[in-house]
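It is worth pausing here to work through a concrete case rather than discussing structure prediction in the abstract. The textbook approach is simple: state the sequence, then state the predicted structure, then interpret. We follow exactly that order.
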Amino acid sequence: MILYHVSQDLTFDGYFQPRIPKEPMTGENDTIFRISAAPTISQCFGAIPRGGVMFHHMCHRCDGYFKVFRIDTEKVGISEENIVRPHTLKEKELVPDAWFHEEHWITTPFSVSEEDHLLIQVQNWKEELQAKHIQTNKYVGEKEVKEQNLWSSVMHEKGFVMLDLKYDVLADYPSHIKEKIAKGYFQYQERPDGGYRILLDVI
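Step two, the predicted structure:
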């Protein structure tokens, strides 16, 4: 099986240790240690928390550069028992949007060799909302107001599907990106209070 994982951490060496996301989506399991992956790069990007809005922000922040890991499960020694497939994630209600992006969980440590690392720069894409529930409840003072809220639907069900993703595969990063990497700009950083990471894994 071939799966992909995409990260903004441009210095990541490809050793994956299963973990619990620091900012899981509403309704997502927060007890099972895992690495999330998907069959295509587009599906990885589509699974970004808060959907297309967050992706626009991420691309702006990192000039569209991402590191992609091609995970050949047989090559890296991941057995079937250590892969949780989308239908299981859905049936057990572990990830509300698993069916949108064919999300898989890998529950054992593994390492992706450098030959299976890709450096990419996203150029353009199309996106589509496929949210199932878009009605939300909003409280104004003591009055409850029901409204159609697509932003909330993206946050809670991540019904953001990426279409026609176009990107360049690079042999190396340009000099201005290397300078930022040297300064730690694209590495994971956490606030002193243990809050959210400055950079997020895509999936």
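Step three, interpretation. Helices lie at 41-46, 51-62, 73-76, 86-91, 98-101, 150-157, 175-182. Residues 132-158, 193-201 have pLDDT under 50 and may be disordered.
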